[in-house]
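Below is how a single chain appears once it has passed through the pipeline. First comes the sequence as given, then the structure the pipeline wrote out for it. We keep one example in the README because the format questions we get most often are answered faster by looking than by reading.
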Amino acid sequence: MALFTYDDTSRREDLLSVLRDVSRAASNYLVSSLGKSTAMNTLHEWPVRNIARSGAVNTVAEGAEASEPTGDAPTRSNNITAIFSRVVKVSGTEQAVIRALPGSATDDEKKVKLMRLKSDMEYALINGTIASGASGTARGMAGLRGVISTNLTGRASGTSMSVTELEDLHQNTWDATGGDGFTADVLLTPMGIKRKIATFTTRVETHGTNTDKLYNNISFFETSFGTLKIVPHKDVVNSAGCVNVIGIKEGYYKMAFLVNREPDYEALAKSGDYERGQYITELTLESQAEAASVVRTGYNQNG
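Resulting structure:
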C-alpha cells in the first residue's frame, strides 16, 4: 500500500522557534527620551517663575522716592506620584513543558510584563489625570494634557492641520515665554497629522542626490519660531473631530521617581504551584515650565 502525507497522522507538527513581536506596547517615546528626577514625597513640588515683559514705558520722575511693586516671586507647581504594577505569574507546569520559544517561560513572561509596565507609564505621561488617592483608591498623576494650561486651545471640530496652524501653535509658546530658545521643540501627533505635515511643501529644501528614491517625509519642521521635531505617537488622542497635537519643550519635563521606586522586579510569596513576582514603580511627571508647551485639540483625523 502506498503511503502519502495526508494519510500519515503520525507526522509531527512544524513549529518555528521564532516570534515576530510587533506589539503596539513597544513604542514609548517619552519613557525613552525624558530625563529623570527624584521625588521625595507623594506630592512632588518644584518652583516656577515666568516674569512678564514690560507692556508700557516705565520711567520715574527726577528725585522720586525709590519704590518697587511686589511681585516676581517664584510660585510652586506640583504633581502627585502614581504607582504602576504588572504581576508575573507562571505555573510550575508551564515552566516544565517544552515551548517553541527559546528561554524559560518565566523569563518570557517578565519581558512581556515589563513591556506592559512601560506602556502604562507612557500612556499616563500623556493622558494621566491627577487624583489624590483617598483610602483604597489609586493616586493619579497629571500627564501632559493635564499640566499644560497656559497654551491650551480647542479648535473647531474637524479643523485641518496647515502650515498656518503649525506656525500659530508654535507662536503660542513663543508669546508665553522669553521667546527664542524657550519654545516647544517636539510635536507629538497622531499619524494622520504627521502625514499631513509631510505634504507641506512651502520653501522645502531637499537634501541628498539620490535620483532613484522619492521622499515624502518631514521629521523636522522649522517654523518662524524654531525647529519642531515631528514625532507620531499612538497615545495622543485621535478621536474623530477632536484629534490632539502636543508641542513640548522636551528638556523641561522629567520623570520624577519616588525615592527608591524606579522600575524594579520583586519576587512575591507563593502559596501554590507557580512562580510569582511583580514589576513596580512610582513616579510623576515633573513639568518645570509648562508655558513653553502647547496643546491644541479638534483636528481632523486625516490632518
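The chain has two domains: 26-45+75-141+255-287, 148-205+215-252+289-299.

See the next section for the split statistics.
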